[in-house]
Amino acid sequence: MAEFVDLVLFWNGGRNDNCTVATPEGLSSCQGAGYNRIRVEGKIFRHQVPGTVPLNLYWNGGRNDNFTTAHKDGQAAATGAGYNFIRTEGFVYPHPVQGTIPLKTFWNGGRNDNCSVATKEGLDSVASAGYNFIRDDCYIFPANFTVQTTVNNPFDLADLNLHWNGGMNDNCCVATAEGWQQVSTSGYNFIRTEARILRNNVPGSVPLNTYRHSGRNDTVTTASYEGHLAAKNDGYAFVRTEGFVFPFPVNGTIPLKVYWNGGRNDNYSTATKEGIDSANGSGYNLVRDDCWVYPNNFMRPEMSDLVLFWNGGRNDNCTVAHNDSLSACQGAGYNRIRTEAKIFKTQAPGTVPLNLYWNGSRNDNFTCAHPESISAAQGAGYTFIRTEGYVYPHPVAGSVPLKIYWEGGRSDNFSTATPAGIQAALAANYKFIRDDCHVYPA
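Now predict its structure.
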């Protein structure tokens, strides 16, 4: 897990020296040499994380000047002017990352003093003291920066699903309904859930964006500065934000790795052992640990199997998930056929009830969620039995439609989400009615 430390500004009037440090040694040295603590200028990483560089402290005894810098030009200027390296105070970004601010370098020739500040107070102070701006040296987090490291609601997370299109040689990760719609209508096959990502931006998170290159038929999902820059430079077009991730390790997260295969012109994002093994076995090269995500089993909402039963004496298909319904089917002589899908046990944001209805004169169970299906059931004299669970009324990433079929000779409604169920319905001359709702594959 990434650990942050305060980057603190000190001042020594006798030396006319500003000194910006973060390590215990730096803090102790300043205090021991008569420096006064002024303020926290920002937060930096205690240890190196991917994408960061060292923030180094240099000292020139002839000038009585401490100089804190991460930029290659700053370090070259320090060594060129006879400064000695003292220590690395922490780690910073060499480029902007969402949520960061520049640590600016200023110089006052009359004082022979380099000063590194990031706060408004610091900028006002150097301006009033006649310092000249040199450069934006690096990027740090504001002094009040926090990271939300806990997820309280499993429905605040979305599945990041991997899809593959063999004709295009393209791996594609999506987490939004729009992304799912795109891959499902473009010949992609679902492979696996790679990770769970945040649906909304929280403190410390950054967007996970999808880019597309039509000439290469390649989709890339990235959150890093390097990934965004490479996509832009290579002519990829922004498609959408899939969700939000962390640009550094957070408790409970794992890296989302980006691989590249030049022969296929394919970027491949994965966070699972299966994905890494597949990339290595298919000639892909690791590009970077792009960002940090939650494992694919993290805080997964509790699901129920939606099970299909059949009673030949009644000519009735019955699709249920509730324990009471499972027991009722078994008690009434129904045979278990297969698991058709998975549905939520409790209501999640954006879901609706999947209800079971019964018509005794028809000996027909009817499981549905669509308003037109419910209206048809009520209009035909069906009685509400119970809510079996909860489903989406529209497509979401990774979902499949629960389809309703009807066979008038049997007076039987048939709800199915599997290819086997659809094939059975068509073979028995059932008529397709509608995509009633959307559920997760079995």
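The chain is about 20% helix and 45% strand.
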